[in-house]
Amino acid sequence: MLKMGDMWGQLGSVMASMMFAYAMFKQFFPDNLGDILEKYGQKLVAYVYPYIQITFDEYDSDFYRRSEVYSAIQNYLSTKSSTLAKRLKAHEVKGSKALVLGMDDNEEVTDEFEGVKLWWASKKSATKKASFSDLIIGRYIEHVMKEGNAIKLRNRERKLYTNNGVRWSHVVFEHPATFQTLAMDPVKKQEIMDDLMTFSKAEEFYKSIGRAWKRGYLLYGPPGTGKSTMIAAMANHLGYNIYDLELTSVKNNTELRKLLLETSNKSLIVIEDIDCSQVTLSGLLNFIDGLWSACKGERLIVFTTNHVEKLDAALTRKGRLDKHIELSYCTFEAFKVLARNYLKLESHHLFPTICELLGKTNVVPADVAEHLMPKTLSQSADICLQNLVQALKKEKENGKLIAEEERKYGKYGAISWKCMTSTQDHLIEDKKRAKN
Ligand SMILES: Nc1ncnc2c1ncn2[C@@H]1O[C@H](COP(=O)(O)OP(=O)(O)OP(=O)(O)O)[C@@H](O)[C@H]1O
């Protein structure tokens, strides 16, 4: 499929040239004035002709390989789809997720940067010698390079690595989760997105303070609250690969070191269910800390646990891991995201009832999502919401019974009883009947 956003993804010519000029001059001078004036000498041209033209070759003349600047420009122009060229070329690009369209030779695209209008054109033939200006070209090209490389990163095919012993193998990572579809408190969500973005752009900062460019997150919360979903959303947000490190198949520190040194930059290293591992988390962190200096580039390391209370206190104290994120039971705000995802609903007359019930129950987003997922093609949103209301009412009743048990038999008696309720609902019914 051809993607509109990739319209300018390929300049598709032997050479790309960039022309820019202050917009107001463009109104007073014909485009070919430069050629005319050039006949009368460079000095006169520089004095009268307001355009500056810079050419970027597709191939590096010394090494005969494709220029990185050229491909960053291609990526940058791929977002300038608002100014469509009339003649396009289709290209298949290695490592990119879709076929892209680019402008044909001698087509033009306009851009604006800090109030200056610029024209990009693709040409087959070599253009005349470039003249440079310090005024904006440095900053503009820096901007094009930065944006172009970021776009390339977002578009690249990403990978999910898993280890079997000391060997990484990978599949293409195509998890659809995004922060938009993640059900959680919107303020907390925005804070995490900002934190990730700040980290991904902080190379200079980390360098200036003499620290490795890495950040550690701890995600904790009951099963089904979205820890794995958040990891996928993080990787999609940043355009990073994921390394899912299975610690149980790593025999010793030498193996761990080998695996970690093989991870690439712009990656997210995940260690799930750390509370179930033989390795202590603080031991692992000490080891990793010593290792990072050998790794170039940025890495995020994410630990997950269902039982934060089991983790070493030395680890959970501030400063050991950069960010602790609790994923919790479904709130009404989180429910609204799920209703939007699954039922395309912004409001419904059952929403106030659901809001009240969620306030009185501990239900994880995975269970709410399960009820919102239509069971048949014809199942309506009304039925899904009614099923959810029924399930929440039942959960509320269970909660009341547990509180009662807790009063009678103490906390631990009630907890073991709660464990039974998830699989043996009939026992609750029996208890209820016995009470009546
Ligand atoms: N916060 C959430 N937002 C959106 N979907 C969610 C969320 N939490 C759970 N889900 C849904 O429930 C499914 C299971 O959630 P997920 O695996 O992310 O939970 P988890 O906390 O990682 O669980 P576990 O601790 O058992 O690994 C997901 O595939 C997703 O469909």
Automatic annotation (TrEMBL):
GO MF term (any one): ATP hydrolysis activity
Q: Provide the alphabetized UniProt keywords.
A: ATP-binding, Hydrolase, Magnesium, Nucleotide-binding
Q: Which reaction does it catalyse?
A: ATP + H2O = ADP + phosphate + H(+)
Cofactor(s) it depends on: Mg(2+)
- Record carries keyword Magnesium: yes
PROSITE patterns given in the database record: AAA (PS00674)
GO biological process: any one?
response to stress
Q: Which residues form the AAA+ ATPase domain?
A: 213-331
The answer to whether keyword Cell wall biogenesis/degradation applies is no
Family, according to the entry, reads as follows: Belongs to the AAA ATPase family. BCS1 subfamily.
Q: What PANTHER family does its record include?
A: BCS1 AAA-TYPE ATPASE (PTHR23070)
What is the recorded name of this protein?
Answer: Mitochondrial chaperone BCS1-B
Which organism was this protein described from? Pyrus ussuriensis x Pyrus communis
